[in-house]
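Hi there,

I know you've been waiting on this one. I reran it after we fixed the sequence typo, so this is the corrected version. Both the input and the resulting structure follow.
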Amino acid sequence: MDKLIIEARINEYAGRGQNPNVPWNPEEIAEAATQCREAGASIVHFHARSKDGGPEHDVAVYADIIRRIKARSDILIHPTLGAFANDGDASQRIQPILDLAKDPETRPHFAPLDMGTTNIDAYNSATKSFRSDEVVYTNTTKTLLYFAEQLQAVAVRPYASLWNVGFTRQFLAFLKMGAIAEPAFACLIMTGDDLPSAHPGTEQGLDAHTMFIPDDRNIQWTAMNHGGDLLALAPKIIGEGGHVSIGLGDWPYLELGTPTNAEIVVHVAEVARSQGREIADPAEAAAMLGVQV
């Protein structure tokens, strides 16, 4: 079995009400990435945030963060594409990644490709009502093909985000077309009760994903649970040869106290080693995923 790739999902748009260790500013993000690398993570996923924690979409801020991270460690870098950063066409949406890729000091190693369109309205299970009812994350096939072509040209690897089996089938079509090269990296997205758009973060939800990942393609898959606790599923994911994408961006993990992202990574690494699976360092992860470093 391949070594385990741990991706630290360090902030997303999480607040600090439950766990104050969510990194927001560039220095905090860079420090969290460094600590996660030391703890065993080989990839860091982050969103730039403003001083008050709001979304920050300035390419210069992303460049600053990536420079800080690269100056401190060799961890592989996966920034957000920015689902709602702008409402432009495909070329405008991908341009921030292309701008970052022009300079080796700011070139990310991955950019996400959400392989379809989905409603991502928030549901309030207490009141049994939706907090929103018109939030659509739109990714047409034409847009995704354009993204894949542009990323290939700048040596940034696509990170295929699979919200459900329909997304997986689209992803497999891209592999067959050669639009995404193998070895391919796919994230099996699960979500908590407040975001019913993806598979639930349960054994059944994970199984419903993995049963559609074919054995005859060179695919490395990782699993995440946005808005839900992934730790209970970690032994199953690790035992089935998957990788783990986890962090304070998805869940506060208060069962570990008020952990830092690095402490969550340490916990996952300990689970993996207890199951006889070693941890991949960034160079090993890059080789497994076809990443140019």
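Quick highlight: Residues 26-39 form the longest helix (14 residues).

Best,
R. S.
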